[in-house]
Prior knowledge:
The complex is a heterodimer.
Chain A: H1 3-21, H2 26-60, H3 63-78, H4 85-90, H5 95-106, H6 114-125, H7 129-139, H8 146-172
Helix pairs in contact in A: 2-5, 5-6, 6-8
Chain B: H1 2-20, H2 23-60, H3 63-70, H4 72-79, H5 84-98, H6 106-118, H7 122-134, H8 142-150, H9 160-181, H10 187-190
Amino acid sequence: MRVTDMIVPLMIMFILLxxxxxxxxxxxxxxxxxxxxxxxxxxxxxxLVLLMTAVGMFTSSGAAEMLAALLSPxxxxxxxxxxxxxxxFIRPISGSGAxxxxxxxxxxxxxxxxxxxxxxxxxxSTETTFYTIAVYSAAQRKKxxxxxFIAAAAADLTGxxxxxxxxxxxIQG
Amino acid sequence: xxSFIIVVMLLISVTAGCLNGSWEDISASAVSACTDAVELGxxxxxxxxLWCGLMRVAERSGLTAKLSAALSPVVRxxxxxxxxDSRKAVSLNLTANLLGLGNAATPTGIxxxxxxxxxxxPKRNTALLTVLNTASIQLxxxxxxxxxxxxxxxxxxxxxxxxxxxxxxxxxxxxxTAAILFSGVDKDxxx
Lengths: 173, 191
């Protein structure tokens, strides 16, 4: 038994119990939220069809391996699994593209392998950086300050490097 | 931007096909990937429905508001003194990120940058908020855990501690970089 396996069941129970105590109409509100979630997920499908086709063609063409071979001096030095390189490239640019890349990766390597775990951590602890910057600066009706890109890139790079390092230190043991 | 990347990926794939003769594999994955995409979307629908449903209950019961109130010391530490509106908007956005709301966190982020843009040190604070959002500090990475479970992971949530350490460090590095790069930037605007 792991502590991490307890968090989700306990959290689900706690949220629902707290809602009940505060007299929230659980069935009604839950379905309203769930409907939104379903709409979001189904709304992703058209985009995913295009992206998964592109990612699938890319990885099966051997291009990813060529790229990985090219970058192997850097990735080997960092201990970063070469299977996760295409994910690292697409992660800052497109959320659904990254989803497509992870899904593709899991069909080739087991999610509990080193590469599978690194991809999971990378996916969960970074965001679609460029999209976020674009949306926020559009909200302020300003061009994004170039220094924001530097700070965000520093954060992303830290995330890439630490994803394989934390897997090795905290999970593989 | 995305269209450009897709075309570049396809060009590279086709070039690689010419170089190493992997045409069979490429065409096989081109026709199978589209059904994979629909399966993925339907599959994600389940975990997203569960989570969005729970989050709606948490919001209605006041749990989300409580969590964001608990975050306000952290907000004060990072952003300095803020007016009430900005502080609330920023806390709500950080809460949405912590709960792993992903797309649903975007509207709260937009509200927060709008409020920050009008306050003191607008450029620095906007940069800080952006970095905090791109580092995506989340307690429960639902989507990826669901994908792991679907593909036969024995412990889909075993990644939690690694995710927390990684995203917190990335956020810290981003914030420090932003604070350094933007120190003194907003002075002219204030005077």
